[in-house]
Design goal:
The chain is of the alpha+beta class. The protein contains 15 helices and 25 strands. Helix 10 packs across helix 11.
């Protein structure tokens, strides 16, 4: 309730700062959808998108960077077909917050409805959320969402504009199995009970060379955590396309990066099928949910028991189906960014089930450095404490320290996309995973999404349940013996999201551990950005394409050091 009041007070303040004459002369956008699209009333987030860039549809041009275009959002409930709705009242926009602030000029305009469904949770709550439809929780690509075709308009004072949501995004065709890549999908009983409807987990499985020819072999399992994969990435039997036009990567300042990506994928195929490569299984997991493109692979009050479902339902199923060894000593975790946090968190939360993690550029693993916020001491997430000014906290930088966006801007974009942690974006999923469930069934806010004021009572809940450095320090007497030699962390010292700060704090603790010493590895890339993963020789734009092969020597060394007596170390080394 406190958060809602603060947010509403912010909107009231905005309205107070806008004169009646300004509001009367602001443009009006009226939106509807025809019965031919759906005869049923709709719930969801109605989005208005405006762009001065004609190179793509406006729905694909909203981001955290300097080149972002405009988005305004409004919740709708039981919205009937053929019923025009004005974008007015409790709507919110980014980077401008109201239509009164919209400059006159030429725009390409589009509207989209991110459709919600009602979930009857096991907790007794009913919540309205956007279900994943196989796209990995991407509102602008979600099958079934309604949208209008872009049209060019001239915005003038008092202008009225009508948009019709007469298009619907088509379903996604699932990928087909190949000789090396298999696709599985299972119903999770644990998750189905929590969500009150059938809920599934999926995975893309890369099987080794000789899988069919060696039925006696049993294989170690490498779990590559990360964002929603539409198929197994970075594996390409075919050489790079000969007629591909080279494209420049502005992020890496490299020309022809698209060709490099294909070449690296083809090189990995040759390595994977070559005579000297260890025969293992690699999986990429699909666990998109109504809040994000993945679950963070841990149990959560708002997302349900994804940690248990993955560890005790999905992993054993895959090992049985594809002849995995099926023992904890033979399972390894790795990934970058979200996947880096997941690899470390799963190893910490399930210390007996996995034999090592390689966490690259992990999301914040110490909430004293929740990017640039100390959630325990700072009063406000968006502004540094100062008696006479309000300096904004950075949210994203390049390797030279040039700032692309502030933390406030990043959160306000999410607020335009959805209230109650429903944007499907980064800060909201952290809140959905780490927060308790509120009285209304939605995640409790760590901070007021509009003002940035931090709720320190909620911060303590985060600390006790998901602050990985704190949990390790609190429980090292119990966890230390189980995790010795299993924790490895890599991060660039110019990470774009300042994630290296939390790694420094984690390193301080781990290097000071005793009885036992943690016995792993922590390394930093000089001037390396997100997502540096531990290769000191190759540039990041290449090493980031080699996750699936670069950790194998470290995994083999770990197996040699830790496999129990009688373990199968031969059947998979043909």
């Amino acid at each position: 309730m406190k958060v809602n009041i603060l947010f509403l007070s912010g909107l009231v303040l905005l309205a107070a700062c806008t004169s009646p004459s300004d509001r009367a002369s602001s443009p009006t956008f009226t939106i509807s959808f025809p019965e031919s699209i759906s005869s049923e009333p709709q719930d969801g987030r109605l989005l208005l998108l405006l762009s001065q860039d004609s190179t793509d549809q406006p729905r694909f041009q909203v981001n955290d960077g300097h080149n972002t275009q405009l988005i305004l959002g409004l919740n709708v409930s039981s919205w009937a077909p053929n019923t025009p709705k004005d974008l007015e009242g409790d709507f919110f926009g980014y980077p401008i917050e109201t239509l009164e602030q919209l400059p006159k000029g030429e725009y390409y305009v589009q509207s989209l409805l991110n459709r919600y469904e009602t979930f009857n949770l096991a907790t007794g709550h009913k919540v309205k959320l956007p279900p994943d439809k196989g796209e990995g929780q991407q509102w602008n690509r979600k099958p079934g969402n309604f949208y209008s075709q872009p049209q060019k308009i001239s915005v003038i004072k008092g202008g009225r504009y009508e948009l019709t949501l007469d298009q619907i995004i088509s379903p996604i065709e699932p990928p087909e199995d190949t000789k090396y890549i298999k696709h599985i999908k299972i119903k999770s009983e644990m998750l189905s009970e929590f969500w009150g409807r059938p809920t599934y987990l999926g995975a893309h499985v890369l099987v080794p060379e000789g899988f069919e020819e060696h039925p006696e072999a049993r294989y170690p399992l490498m779990i590559f955590h990360g964002h929603f994969p539409d198929d197994f990435g970075g594996f390409r039997p075919e050489p790079p396309d000969a007629d591909m036009e080279p494209e420049y990567s502005d992020r890496f300042k490299v020309d022809g990066y698209n060709k490099m990506v294909q070449q690296e994928a083809h090189d990995f195929y040759k390595t994977w099928t070559g005579p000297d490569f260890p025969r293992m299984l690699i999986i990429e997991i699909q666990h998109a949910n109504p809040y994000y493109d993945d679950s963070y692979a841990v149990n959560s009050a708002n997302l349900g028991p994804y940690g248990d479902a993955i560890t005790y339902e999905l992993i054993p199923y895959i090992e049985k189906e594809f002849r995995g060894i099926g023992q904890p000593w033979s399972r390894f975790l790795y990934g970058g960014s979200t996947g880096g946090w997941e690899a470390l968190a799963v190893q910490v939360m399930y210390p007996d089930q996995y034999n090592g993690c390689f966490a690259a550029c992990p999301d914040p693993i110490d909430f004293r450095a929740y990017c640039l916020v100390d959630i325990y001491k700072d009063k406000n997430a968006y502004y540094y404490d100062s008696p006479f000014k309000k300096p904004l906290r950075p949210g994203h930088r390049d390797y030279l320290g040039q700032m692309q966006s502030t933390l406030r801007e990043m959160n306000l974009r999410e607020l335009a996309l959805g209230t109650k942690s429903r944007s499907g974006q980064q800060w909201d999923i952290w809140e959905a995973v780490y927060s308790p469930q509120g009285d209304d069934g939605y995640p409790v806010r760590l901070w007021d999404k509009y003002t940035g004021e931090i709720d320190h009572e909620e911060a303590e809940y985060w600390k006790e349940n998901y602050d990985l450095r704190y949990i390790l320090e609190r429980d090292w007497k119990k966890l230390g013996p189980k995790l010795k030699g299993k924790i490895n962390i890599y991060c660039g010292d110019m990470d774009n999201y300042y994630l290296n700060n939390a790694v420094y704090l984690m390193e301080e603790f781990l290097e000071g551990t005793k009885d036992p010493y943690y016995g792993g590895e922590i390394a930093y890339g000089d001037r390396a950005e997100h997502c540096w993963n531990g290769d000191p020789e190759l540039p990041n734009h290449i090493s980031r394409l080699r996750y699936n092969s670069m950790y194998v020597p470290k995994i083999l060394k770990r197996i040699e050091e830790s496999a129990p007596a009688g373990a199968d170390l031969k059947s998979w080394r043909y």
